[in-house]
Amino acid sequence: EGAMRRRGWHTQELQGELILARRWPARFDLSVETRLPPVGRKARLAHQVRQDLWRALQSLRGFSPCVSVTEEAGATLLRAGGQLDGAAPRAQAEARLVAVLEDPRNRARWLRWAR
After folding, report:
1. In which domain, by residue range, is 89 found?
2. What's the Cα-to-Cα distance from 113 to each of 67, 106, 110, rounded to whole Å?
3. Separation of CA 48 from chain center
4. N or C: less crowded end of the chain, CB within 10 Å?
5. pLDDT mean by block of 10 residues, the chain; 115 residues
6. How many domains, the chain?
7. Would the CA dihedral through 115, 26, 64, 11 be positive or negative?
8. Region for residue 74 given its phi and psi (left: phi exceeds 0; alpha: psi -120 to 50; beta: otherwise)
C-alpha cells in the first residue's frame, strides 16, 4: 500500500526515508547499515546499491533485495538487505552484505552516481 511500482520495483518515500524493494511491503530479514556523505538523489543511490546487493547474493535462494536511504545529521544512512524466504546461512549472507557496503570502489561509484 502506498508504494509506487516502476519496472518491477516498489519505491516509497515517507518522512525522509526512501525504501526500494522488489516485493511490497518491504521486509528486512537480513540487513546491515552504513553511513555515507549526503547525496542529492536517494533513488539513484538505492538502485545502485540494490544492483550490487543482487550481484553479491543472487545465489541465495529466496533472497529479494531491499534498500532504505535516509538523510540524517549531515550524513546518509543506508540500510541494505532484504527479504529472505527460506533457510540460509545468515552470518555468511550478512558478511557478504557488509563487504558490498564497505567496498571503497562501490562507495565511490555510488556517490558519483547519486550526486
Report:
1. 4-113
2. 16, 11, 5
3. 8
4. N
5. 63 91 89 94 94 90 92 93 83 91 96 91
6. 1
7. negative
8. left
pLDDT at position 99, please?
Answer: 96
Cell output for 89: 546461512
Q: In terms of residues, how long is the chain?
A: 115
**What does the block give as the cell for 91?**
552470518
What interhelical angle do 42-57 and 90-102 show, nearest 10?
A: 130
- Return the H-helix or E-strand segment holding 10: strand 9-14
Q: What are the pLDDT digits (tens) for 81-107?
A: 998 887 778 888 899 999 999 999 999
Which residues, listed in sequence order, are joined to residue 9 by a DSSP beta bridge? 6
58: Cα separation from own chain's centroid = 14
The b-or-e profile of 18-41 (16+ CB within 10 A means b, else e) is bbbbbebebbbbbebebebeebee
